[in-house]
Structures are given as structure tokens and as C-alpha cells.
Design the sequence.
């Protein structure tokens, strides 16, 4: 980028400000070392500036374009919470994952960007504003491999309009859900340093160069923000389930999504039944028989609110069970094949009748409900039903639960805005 003398002087002022207060700089540009501003050339070309943040083990390069955009707003830099720092028009939200710093994972995250009306979002390594704020606040510790800037990766949001805190936090959650689903590992907003975890992670980070795969640089895939799921607590619950290492706890975490949405599903079914019944008016009289039929629907709703019935309602209304049949553990699949007279291990719509599909929905729901109970009540006098997924089959069961809960999230997205969870 070509820099005229006026901009050179401004950049030098910013550099002096940073050097005196926060960070060291290095490089071979006249901007850095010429003390007499009159001797600066009329124009120079410079692509980046090299920084050394406190306790970072490597230098950090920032493009001159980014440097100018950050420093233009540096006086408005402030911390919102443990994970978010911002200026008036740039927001950096630190994200974390068990894979940060491993096998080019951070680089892979940078192959995704997001764009919406008046909003540009990217994933940045060694986020500059985060580094400056950490340096200013003294949030770094060399003994634990915790530098001010280098260990971090952040979601960078550049809106052209003001965004309130709620909108920002919900956008971050939506992006974390997308990244979690895309890369298959939980990615979440940073909640502050776990020093022991960081020590292990940074030790790996600085000793794995020879282990990193040599990969060609991937093009950035820009995702339309409007195509991301709208914010819902279900997004957070899904990514949290992806982050669980224990198979039993992971199953329960997935099952929480089913439990969370089930009252909404039961209500949706009840509303549909009521609407169809009320559609008969005024073609029928409001006699006792008609009014009794309304009471029957209300009683059916009460029945559907029982735990076992809720699982059935969710599977019946939110999930396509045909693809799930082939994902069932072998024991459960054999039982269902026998009970429903299904001949194949993997089925299509042409292989089963509507009655078999309804039976498959109920039996899958019973398997999930029984497995949930067997885990929750394992230390009590739980009586097995025979539907439970065994401990050894739980990893496969959780793969099925991931598909089920993703379907539930998509079902929720299709509901009217005032009705979805």
C-alpha cells in the first residue's frame, strides 16, 4: 500500500503511542525509525508492520490496512466482558475450542467468513485489539505460555450500523454454532483463561511445527448471515453437546434439546388439532358432542405432556426416521425389524408402509427415552425395558442423536417467529 507523508506521520504517532504504552515494534520501514519527520519520504510502499506483544513467543504481522482501521478507532477501545473487546465500529470476540492451536485448526477456521446487510464478519488469529487491551490490562503470563495476543483467535465483526449487546451476543452464538457443526468440535465464546489448560495447549502449539500438515491455502468461503439459524438456546445446547467427551453425558446433553423443544411440539400438535376442529364452524352446531370433542383434544394435550409421550411427539413431528433406521445400533435395529416386519437393514420410503413408519417413530422414541432413564437412574433401582442403548453402542447412538437434534433445530427454525423457542 502506498503511504504519503501525511499518513506516514499519523502512523508514526500511533506507533509511538503503542510503543510507549503497550507493545514493541520491529521492521525496516522509515516510519519506525526516522526521528525527523521532515526526512520522511514523500511516499513509501509498505504492506505490514511487525509487532511483539508482551509474553508472546513469536512476532505478529498486521497488514497496514488493518492497522490503520484499528488505530483510527483506538481511543474508543474498551472491554465488554472476558471474551469481547471493541471500538465504536469493530468488535473482536475471542473464541476457543479443544482444537485451538492444533494441526492448523486455527487456519481452517479462517477459511470461513460471514456477510450480511451492513455486517462483515471474519475469523482472525492473534486479534490485534484483543492484544492491545490485554497488554493495557496486564492480562498475560509468560510462565504459563499466556501471551497478550498470540494464543487467541477471535470473531471480528465490522458493522456499518450500531448493534446492541443482545444482537452482538446472539450473532456470536449463531456463528459458534455454525463453526461447531462445520468442523465437528465445539467452538465457544472464551470464558477466561484456564491456566493449566493453556499451559498444555501452548506447549503443543510451539512444538508442533514439524507435525502440521502441509496444505494449500484454502479460499475463504463467505456465508450469508441470513442463512444462519436464528438465535435460539438450542444452538448453545447443541455445541455444548459436541464438546462433551463422556458418551453418557453427551447423550444426556443431546436429550436436553429434545426435552427443551418437546412442550413446543406438543403445543403445536394441539393447536393444529384445535384449528382443524374449529374450522368446522359454523357448519356444525356447538352442541355437547362438539364441545366434548374439544375437551378430548385438551386431554390429549395433557397426555402428550408426559415424558414418554413428549419423546414420541418430537420424533413424529421433527425428524425423518427413514435415514435414522440404518444408524441404529445393531441390537435395536434387529428388534425393530422383527417387531415391524422390516426386511432390510437400510430402508427407503418405498420399503415401508405408513403404519411401519409410525411404528418406527414410536420405537426410536422409546429407545431414546429408555436410554436416557438408564443413565439418569443408573444408581437407583432402575428396571431395564430392553430398549436401552448399551454403553458400548453409545458412541454410535450419539452420532444418531446429533442428526436428530440437528433436525429438531431445523424444525424450530421453520416455526413462526413468535412461536419458536
Sequence:
Amino acid at each position: 500500500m502506498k503511504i504519503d507523508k501525511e499518513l506516514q506521520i499519523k502512523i508514526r504517532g500511533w506507533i509511538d503511542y503503542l510503543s510507549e504504552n503497550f507493545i514493541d515494534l520491529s521492521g525496516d520501514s522509515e516510519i519506525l525509525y526516522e526521528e525527523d519527520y521532515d526526512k520522511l519520504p514523500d511516499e513509501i510502499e509498505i504492506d505490514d508492520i511487525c509487532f511483539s506483544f508482551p509474553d508472546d513467543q513469536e512476532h505478529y504481522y498486521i497488514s497496514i490496512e488493518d492497522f490503520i482501521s484499528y488505530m483510527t478507532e483506538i481511543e474508543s477501545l474498551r472491554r465488554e466482558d472476558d471474551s469481547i473487546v471493541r471500538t465504536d465500529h469493530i468488535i473482536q470476540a475471542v473464541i476457543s475450542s479443544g482444537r485451538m492451536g492444533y494441526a492448523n485448526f486455527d487456519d481452517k477456521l479462517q477459511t470461513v467468513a460471514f456477510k450480511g446487510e451492513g455486517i462483515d464478519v471474519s475469523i482472525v488469529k492473534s486479534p490485534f485489539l484483543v492484544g492491545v487491551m490485554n497488554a493495557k490490562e496486564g492480562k498475560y503470563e509468560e510462565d504459563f505460555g499466556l501471551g497478550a495476543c498470540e494464543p487467541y483467535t477471535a470473531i471480528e465483526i465490522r458493522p456499518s450500523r450500531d448493534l446492541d449487546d443482545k444482537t452482538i451476543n446472539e450473532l456470536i452464538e449463531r456463528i459458534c454454532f455454525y463453526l461447531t457443526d462445520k468442523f465437528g468440535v465445539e467452538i465457544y465464546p472464551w470464558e477466561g483463561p484456564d491456566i493449566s489448560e493453556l499451559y498444555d495447549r501452548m506447549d503443543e502449539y510451539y512444538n508442533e511445527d514439524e507435525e502440521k500438515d502441509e496444505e494449500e491455502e484454502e479460499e475463504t468461503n463467505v456465508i450469508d448471515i441470513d442463512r444462519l439459524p436464528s438465535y435460539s438456546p438450542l444452538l448453545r445446547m447443541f455445541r455444548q453437546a459436541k464438546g462433551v467427551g463422556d458418551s453418557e453425558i453427551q447423550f444426556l446433553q443431546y436429550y436436553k434439546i429434545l426435552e427443551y423443544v418437546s412442550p413446543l411440539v406438543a403445543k403445536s400438535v394441539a393447536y393444529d388439532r384445535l384449528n382443524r376442529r374449529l374450522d368446522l364452524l359454523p357448519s356444525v352446531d356447538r352442541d355437547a358432542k362438539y364441545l366434548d370433542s374439544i375437551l378430548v383434544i385438551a386431554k390429549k394435550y395433557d397426555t402428550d405432556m408426559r415424558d414418554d409421550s413428549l419423546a414420541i411427539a418430537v420424533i413424529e413431528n421433527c425428524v425423518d426416521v427413514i435415514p435414522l433406521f440404518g444408524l441404529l445400533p445393531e441390537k435395536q435395529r434387529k428388534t425393530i425389524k422383527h417387531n415391524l416386519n422390516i426386511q432390510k437393514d437400510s430402508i427407503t420410503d418405498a420399503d415401508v408402509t405408513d403404519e411401519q413408519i409410525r411404528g418406527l417413530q414410536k420405537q426410536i422414541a422409546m429407545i431414546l427415552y429408555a436410554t436416557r432413564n438408564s443413565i439418569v437412574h443408573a444408581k437407583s433401582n432402575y428396571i431395564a425395558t430392553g430398549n436401552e442403548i448399551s454403553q458400548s453402542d453409545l458412541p454410535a447412538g450419539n452420532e444418531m442423536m446429533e442428526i436428530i437434534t440437528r433436525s429438531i433445530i431445523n424444525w424450530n427454525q421453520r416455526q413462526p417467529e413468535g412461536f419458536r423457542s
